[in-house]
Specification:
15 strands, 347 residues, alpha/beta, two-stranded antiparallel sheet, 12 helices, Rossmann fold, single chain, globular
Length: 347
Amino acid sequence: MAIESQKTSIRDVAELDELLSEPTEATIRALAALEGDLLILGVGGKMGPTLARMAKRASELAGIRRRVIGVSRFSSHECEHQLQVWGVETIRCDLLNRKSLFELPEAANVIYMAGMKFGSTGQEALTWAMNSFLPGLVCERYPHSRIAAFSTGNVYGLCPVSKKGSRESDPLNPMGEYAMSCLGRERIFEHFSRTGKMNITILRLNYASEMRYGVLLDVAKRVYAEQAVPLSMGYLNAIWQGDASAMSLQALGHASVPSCVINIAGPELLSVRSIAEEFGALFQKPVRFEGVESDDALLSDAGRAFELFGHPRVSAAQLMTWIAHWIARGGATSTKPTRFEERAGRF
């Protein structure tokens, strides 16, 4: 299914959620090939709701009768209600509560999205419990399920800009307790995959963006408010969240023993300076910067994902145009920045 490449703006949240959850033909085929229900752990985050809706839409288009179940504490009743409207079953659960976790329904396919990033500094113990201990509990609960587990490109550490991105085979050098705990998550999944013969794919995402949240939005909001744009992290990757979701769902079919790793990121090496200047032109506003670019950044090479799943449908340039129109119209955005400029791993 093709997103209109000439669309210059997205009208409202309803249209945005429709586009974000539009499955690709490859995603439809991938879910048609899988048997059993799909359980999404940690569905209440930024990416979870529309990924769950995409899974439901793709399954229906494939003619597959499948339960798609979203699990979260659901601090937002609105999120829970919206998922139900979309046909996604919801279950409230504190995943760290072993009894509640083990009472969840069986599912042949599991998407693991639970984790803690923002607020991890000062709550290091909870961060490690969520990011490293919980994966072990999930593997104990679902030892026979196929799992696609979200991780982060932060586990690589800083990559020379000249290299244009870390590859899955590169050595890991996580900075800060958040990134270290995410590596812990990966190692726990790898351990259970090896010892329990569990089919697992680990997805290193870097970074999913849409109109309401993401690194591109952070830069755009600073330019629109005529605030200085930090250049300490001078380069980045960004991928339309709908494309990231499509690839993540397809990754279930590539789960293996031992677990495999797939980077999910945009194909472009994006300069923060150039992004800001482009937004300045779109908004017709002056652009100010603070600091200077370093010769390294958090960057991922997603070439393997493109070989497996195809290239993203939405380019960074298209995404930036949509974001600019969204902000200029006063569209709703998250009040929580991504803190993409953080170089020491303190979130």
